[in-house]
Amino acid sequence: LLRLLEAQLQDQRREHEEEMEALRNQVDLMQEELEKQQQAFLQTLQLSPEVQVELGLQQEITRLTNENLDLKELLEKLEKNEKKLKKQLKIYMKKVQDFEASQTMVPVERRPHEQNMQVAVQRKEKDFQGMLEYYKEDEPLLVRNLIT
Asked: Which parts of the chain are coiled coil (predicted)?
């Protein structure tokens, strides 16, 4: 039991030391970056106000250019998706037209079920004419049912 605990303690110590080393490396990298930024800032302060403004403008232009490129890429993706959706819409519209055309080709005698359904719908409409009373909290459900 004691050996098992010692082994676990050593594993934890090793993991802790590895984690500490990784964190030290990260802190060193951050310090180097901070020093670079401080030097750049000090150099910028030593420049004339006109040059400072020009550098600021150059940085802003670079930022806006990158943002513009990102937006162009997004626009291209959206346009590509729009074309794809338009193609799908045309295909589905063609299928609907073909289906409607095939329904008109079927003789009337073969469609008695459809006529019965239309009559049934008309009867239901007549049965339920008038005002509708409902609770305010049931409104979303009512609207959904009306739409479907």
From this structure: 2-102
